[in-house]
Every structure is written in C-alpha cells, then in structure tokens.
Amino acid sequence: MSSAYTVRWGILATGMIADLFVKDLILDPSTRNVSDVKHEVKAVASSSSADRAKKFLEECKVPKGAAAYGSYEELVKDKNVDIVYVATPHSHHYQNTMLCLEAGKHVLCEKAFTTNAAQAKKLIETAKAKNLFLMEAVWTRFFPLSIQIRRFIEDGNLGAVHRVIADNSFGDNVEEKYGTTHRMINMDLAGGCLLD
C-alpha cells in the first residue's frame, strides 16, 4: 500500500473556530477510516502577535515543529504550507483569502465566504487564473445526513422536490448576548443574520 498523501496546512487566525478546526484536523485519520491522506499543521498566524500563535499551537496540542507568526503576510510566505484555512471574521475574508491566493496558496475559507457576490467572483477568478483550490468551509455539505439526502434527491427516491423549508438558527437574544457593537451585530463588520 502506498503512503498517505500529506496536506500541509497554515492556519490564518487563532480564534474559536480555528481552534475547533485544528483540533479536528490533527486527529488520527484512521478514526474516520481514512488511510490515503493525513493532515499536518505547519504554521499558524495571529494578527496580534507570534506569542499568541505559539499559545494557540500549544492549546491545540499541535505536534512540535509548526511555525508561529505574528502576521498573515509571514504565514503565506511559508514554503512548508500548501493550503491555508482562513478563520478570520467574515468581514475580512476577502482580503485575507486574496492575500493567500496571490501568494500561490490553496484556500479553505470559513463561512461566510465573502460579504458580497462581487468579492466572491473576484476570488474565484483569481483562484482559477492561478490554478488554485478555493472552497468555502460549509460543514453541513459533508454531514452524512446531507450526503444521503442529496443521493435520495438525485436518485429520484423522494420524487420531484418542489419546496424545501429549513431552519438553521439559535434562539438567543443576540443584542443581549453580544451587545450592540460586537462583530456578530455590527453592520459595519458585516454582522447580522445573513452572513454569520
């Protein structure tokens, strides 16, 4: 049997979603019955400091040897990184993803991909022109249930689908929980229910 293909990741940002992603990413692939690919975190960047990136690596228990950077520009220059996971707030996804693409890195960008269609179109054009992988990290697409429902629809098992009603929400009073200036609420930072 051939050895597993190694995907070498850079993590751009050190917040909660990056923490969850990295801890899952570095799990032993055999726990998912996967043997043809493995993931390694090669570098992490924090916009605040290299020390914050180092602390993130320690908290996530990333194996020794990963670089810690205090800027995103340093991360995208790292030759040991093939693909970057962009985990910044979505108001910054366009600029951070473009930085990665312009540096020749493949990108997995957290949702919401961009704040408008024009930004998404430009990122897609840039990725295509540079022959780079670019994807929005929409986790529901890969849920076993989501995959099975798509198969049912494609195979015609459900008949013709005329309408879908879905609810993906939470019942919190967001202003009470986050205040009125938090990025989840602040419209200047693309806050609100449509984008996050």
Task: Describe the overall structure.
This protein has seven helices and six strands. The chain has 196 residues and is of the alpha/beta class. It has a six-stranded parallel beta sheet with strand order 3-2-1-4-5-6, sandwiched between helices. Strand 1, helix 1 (16-25) and strand 2 (37-45) form a beta-alpha-beta unit. The protein is globular. The N and C termini lie far apart (43 Å).
* Element-by-element helix/strand order: EHEHEHEHEHEHH
| Principal-axes shape call | globular
The overall average pLDDT, rounded, is 91
Helix content: 25-40%
Q: Give the structural class.
A: alpha/beta
Give the quaternary arrangement of the chains. single chain
Q: Please outline the major beta sheet.
A: 6 strands, parallel
Alpha-carbon Rg, integer: 19 Å
Tell me the number of strands.
6
